[in-house]
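Internal ticket #5521
Category: modeling
Description: The requester needs a full-assembly model to guide mutagenesis choices. All entity lines are attached below as received. Residue total reported by intake: 584.
Assigned to: D.W.
Attached entities:
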Amino acid sequence: MIRELRESDREGWQRLYRGYQEFYGYGDRAAAFYDKAFARLMARDARDFHGLVHDDGGRLLGLTHYVFHPNLWRDEGVCYLQDLYTAAEARGRGVARALIQGVYDAADRAGVPNVYWLTAEDNYPGRMLYDRVAQRTPFIRYMRKP
Amino acid sequence: MIRELRESDREGWQRLYRGYQEFYGYGDRAAAFYDKAFARLMARDARDFHGLVHDDGGRLLGLTHYVFHPNLWRDEGVCYLQDLYTAAEARGRGVARALIQGVYDAADRAGVPNVYWLTAEDNYPGRMLYDRVAQRTPFIRYMRKP
Amino acid sequence: MIRELRESDREGWQRLYRGYQEFYGYGDRAAAFYDKAFARLMARDARDFHGLVHDDGGRLLGLTHYVFHPNLWRDEGVCYLQDLYTAAEARGRGVARALIQGVYDAADRAGVPNVYWLTAEDNYPGRMLYDRVAQRTPFIRYMRKP
Amino acid sequence: MIRELRESDREGWQRLYRGYQEFYGYGDRAAAFYDKAFARLMARDARDFHGLVHDDGGRLLGLTHYVFHPNLWRDEGVCYLQDLYTAAEARGRGVARALIQGVYDAADRAGVPNVYWLTAEDNYPGRMLYDRVAQRTPFIRYMRKP
């Protein structure tokens, strides 16, 4: 079941988010990183991030975080899905697909049909799913040199 | 000279922004599209878009629009450079490079070092510049099917 | 066990090669296509294609076809691995990896260390393997319009 | 004028081919590299490389080298255009385009309609031309680790 993240999810959420950060090579995030992120998600600020989880009878199998932000071409803005993670032991069971659908549903309720995300070109398992539930665009990301 | 967009730029700004929209195949935008975009830029809402122009003695040679939006990994958020355009007759004179630097400077003043943008993989003239002033990341963009 | 393709493999080889052709959308190849390809592989012409199969106690689980061709930068030429296929029921057991290694070994025996192949950017299962046993280059393929 | 490379082109050919090698970071090739390549091109072996040059009244402005090699899917094989170079001072005058057309013509005479080449994803000037005279395929190149 996909539902909004809530205060009582703190422990299970952090376990998942840590797994996600480890996937990207940030396994050593300080506790403050998780504290701040969770506090922002719980603040329910319409202009900041929202969280959804996949709850399997009380056990969290996956999470996603998304935000609505302005776009000059669209009055209603766009929805950016930043984080998506499925617990290693729950892969292949449709968790990520359901979470993406959960974001689509939330975006529809907010009147923001345009949902997008970025993924590494070589995130093969992710892209197998994304090619089915979304479409690749020809856009690539540039960033200012740190 | 790079400077903030202002009310008196309306005509020159629209000429440029129309050129940019034509580049992306949206040459037939209604007047309301430009009216709304300009009004948003003039509202100077810290959470909405900002505009910079390249002013060559009163003649506008290029424009850029950027916005600061939240990022769950960074307290200060990130800066998204959405639009960048140089008038056809002013290409090759460093206009786009100066505009990007203008966004970098604005981002620095806002305490948001992370600036990014998206570009089509086959935007060769753009990428020749971007490879010099920024770095390509391995990230590609997926979007919900319309 | 990886070994050279031989005359008695005709039936099993065609079953595999048909599967491979179907993967690429050419499921309706005429019998002549297979006849010619097999005859060329059996001719053992040093300048034409060679075949290797993965033989699991008499049952063929996979095949690969490769050819040596000139390269103006290298006296010894290069080795092009054109076809690689694992039977659907034998996936995930290292068949493709062993076949690639078989080509590497054949190339070493021929004094041609440079082995390459081309794959679709979105061949995710293939690329998961290729990233481990080879390296991606920045080269992309252009072809004359048909 | 596009014509076949000939013995008397030795000096002008080497000047161009050195420029091309420098472009790829191989500016220090030994004389033997050029000796061997030129000898192979002059041998006119149907299975080895052929050379074309762009001759502007006795001055060579560009070169290309191509080879026909077997392909298991096509009886007639394919034509691989390996090298293409325009002298720095002759850019923007259609030299590369004419050379590619020269290879297309030679391939037609040989009954080999399929012509292909590989190029770096970030070879923007090249790709501006290639997108017009050919088509990009989704294929990327993998190579054995050296």
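Resolution: model delivered.
Comment from assignee: The mean pLDDT of chain B is 97.
Ticket closed.
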